[in-house]
Amino acid sequence: IFFKNRFRPQLHYSPKKNWMNDPNGMVYYEGEYHLFYQHTPHDTEPDFDNMHWGHAVSNDLVHWEELPPAILPGEDGAIFSGSAVVDNNNTSGFFNENGSGLVAIYTNNSNSAQYGKPQVQSIAYSRDKGRTWTKYKGNPVLFPMKTLDFRDPKVFWHDESSMWVMALAVRDRIEFYISPNLKEWSFASEFGSDIAGIHRGVFECPDLLQIQVDEEPDITKWILILSVGDRNGVNPKDPEPPAGGSGMMYFIGNFDGRSFTLDDTLESLDAIRWIDYGSDFYAAVTWNGIPKEDGRKIWVGWLNNWRYATALPSKEWRGQMSIPREIQLKTYPEGIRLIQVPVSELSQLRKPIMSLQDLTIKPGSNILSDISTEKAEIIAEFEIGTAIEVGFKVRMSANQETIIGYNILKEELFIDRTKSNDIDFHPDFAAKHKAPMKPEHERIQLSIYVDWASVEVFGNKGKAIISDMIFPDLESRGLELYTLGGELKIVSLQINDLVSIWG
Ligand code: FRU
Predict the structure, then answer these.
(1) Same structural domain for residues 209 and 331?
(2) Which of these, 60, 79, 223, 319, could form a disulfide with 20 (CB 3.0-4.6 Å)?
(3) Where on the phi/psi map is residue 44: left (φ > 0), alpha (ψ -120 to 50), or beta?
(4) What is the Å distance from ligand 1's center to 423 Cα?
(5) Widest CA span of the chain, in angstroms?
(6) Which one of 205, 231, 306 would you pick to mutate in the ligand 1 pocket, going by the greatest count of ligand atoms within 8 A of its CB?
């Protein structure tokens, strides 16, 4: 059947055919969530001279309808990553008395140049809910002064100053620009070039947003989110993302409409705050236009890594998005941290398989041996007892397994995909990825999404995240709960099958 081809994600967005990378232009408008994305419609390889904005819409963030590519390359060059906004007050003048519409702000990568060569920012508008787009005649609206890497504009409306703000990735810094009308932009400030240790690769796909702390309406912080590419590196001596290659980091601070300032002083910013400890979560940015009554900050990331993105063993298509996640800030003893939780809309896919409470298991047993599943949601809470390692083996068969485990001695959550089946397409793919995670009140909590080609684990209610692709055989459907070195006390365990989002 259609959409059941080998490795096809059943819970994640992927294009019907051909190449996809970064999510772009995410905006909610008149009842629809739009997801645009970097897309090469004619090839399973990225064609950087011919990048399009692919397009999908959803009314629940779960089920997606693919539409024809939205913004096409032309004389102006390829259409690289960017954002879209709802121009509610017609500041751009594109919508006359017809009311609001959508404006996309993206990077043109010049055709004659190689990847990373002169880049400019352009805009296009849509008066029909994102179905058709007109490029602005005055493009480009922003050109670089000196640097070659100058891309991925994320634009939002800043209420207090009544201005549009753009965060732009400019090689080793983020530059902020402001505009009253999306057409004329002026430089406001820059961030990051002077922070030592964060410049292993070029910055890409920034996001800047104001977000509540501990869901308290009166306490908010600004967070700056960056993706760090491993091509065209800036300082190879700086630390790599935890799982290598492409990774994401964040900073907490304040934004006054012109400049972003860090909460921590530079001395106390001891370690980079990584967003995901897996190999495959990149270029995530949040949806614009979410109604105030909802107020959530929601994103998807590209479930991939540039190290091996062009070598994936899937055939008709290449590239998938993560599940949509809500991001929040939460206060812990060590400070405020970014957490991520799967959006609540996903619960509509649940078909419960089993649920139990208060059970102690011994090493060598497998209480899940009767269950057979190639996609599932596993929600578990364990008490730290005498065991030294506990976890789940998923997508299991005689010679295949992916382990989602917790090493109690090292206080580490991990995914081990070294025996996940198709691993030889790139030397870095077979690996065990670890995230630091301490027990909370002597307990650990795990929420796991398993799909035909990925595993995403949210540890301790979204504090420690690992996102990894896997390519197991469809027949590998075994499931195991194991404990090593001692007994494991299960506080609660729920396993749900999840109905394919493609019906
Ligand atoms: C990030 C990125 C962006 C660029 C796009 C090109 O993955 O390199 O910086 O705009 O991909 O497809």
Answers:
(1) yes
(2) 319
(3) alpha
(4) 25
(5) 71
(6) 205
Q: Quote ipTM for the complex.
A: 0.98
CA 260/CA 317 separation, integer angstroms: 39
Same domain? For 175 and 161 the reply is yes
* Tokens found for residue 246: 């492409």
In angstroms, rounded to a whole number, what is the distance separating the alpha carbons of residues 421 and 312?
13
Distance 23 CA to ligand 1 centre (A): 10
Ligand 1 centre distance from Cα of residue 51 (Å): 10
The pLDDT tens digits along the chain (503 residues) read 458 889 999 999 999 999 999 999 999 999 999 999 999 999 999 999 899 999 999 999 999 999 999 999 998 899 999 999 999 999 999 998 767 899 999 999 875 555 445 789 999 999 999 999 999 999 999 987 666 789 999 999 999 999 999 999 999 999 999 999 999 999 999 999 999 889 999 999 999 999 999 988 899 999 999 999 877 677 888 999 999 999 999 999 999 999 999 997 666 667 799 999 999 999 999 999 999 999 999 999 999 999 999 999 998 999 999 999 999 999 999 899 999 999 999 999 999 999 999 999 999 999 999 999 999 999 999 999 899 999 999 999 999 999 999 999 999 999 999 999 999 999 999 999 999 999 999 999 999 999 999 999 999 999 999 999 999 999 999 999 999 999 999 999 999 999 999 98
The finding on whether 21 has its CB within 6 A of some atom of ligand 1 is yes
The answer to whether 459 and 405 have CB atoms below 8 angstroms apart is no
Q: How many residues does the chain have?
A: 503
Token duo for residue 187? 């430089």
Q: Which amino acids are annotated catalytic?
A: 22
- The count of domains in the chain is 2
Q: What are phi and psi of 499, to 5 degrees?
A: -70, 135
Same domain, 142 and 283: yes
- Residue 204 Cβ inside 6 Å of ligand 1? The answer reads yes
In the reported structure, the alpha carbon of residue 99 is separated from the centroid of ligand 1 by a whole-number distance in angstroms of: 32
Same-domain status, 324 and 402 = no
In ligand 1, the atom with minimum distance to the C-alpha of 227 is 1
Of 27, 110, 108, 38, give the one whose Cα is nearest residue 70: 38
Cα–Cα distance measured from residue 87 to residue 181, given in angstroms and rounded to the nearest whole number: 9
Tell me if 80 CB under 6 Å of ligand 1: yes
- Is residue 152 within 6 Å of ligand 1 at its C-beta? yes
Are 50 and 84 contained in the same domain?
yes
CATH number, domain containing residue 73: 2.115.10.20
